[in-house]
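Lab notebook page, bench 4
Experiment: in silico fold of construct C2
Operator: M.H.
Input chain length: 84 residues
Purpose: comparison with the prior construct
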Amino acid sequence: MLLQSLLFLLQAAGPAFLHTIPAGLELVALHDRPEGSRLGSYYYLIETENRNGITEKQLRTINAIPEVRCLGSFNVMEKQSGTQ
C-alpha cells in the first residue's frame, strides 16, 4: 500500500481554509508561524496524507487556491510493528 504525503504552505488570516482540502486527503499536521510583518497574520504549514497516493486532481485543487504554495509530496515509510 502506497502512503504518500503532501506538504503545502498557506498564507491566511485564519485556518478557515481547512474545508478546501480535497476529499481523500487526511490532515496529519498543521503548524502556524507568525508572518512577522503584520500582527495577526500567519503562515500555515500543512501536511496531509493519502493512503492511495496523491492524485493529479488533488494537486490541481490545492494549487487552484491563490494563497497556497505546494512544497512537494513524498512517499511515507510505514513502520511495521515487531520488526527491527
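Observations: Strands lie at 4-12, 26-34, 42-50, 68-75. Helices lie at 56-63.
Next step: discuss at group meeting.
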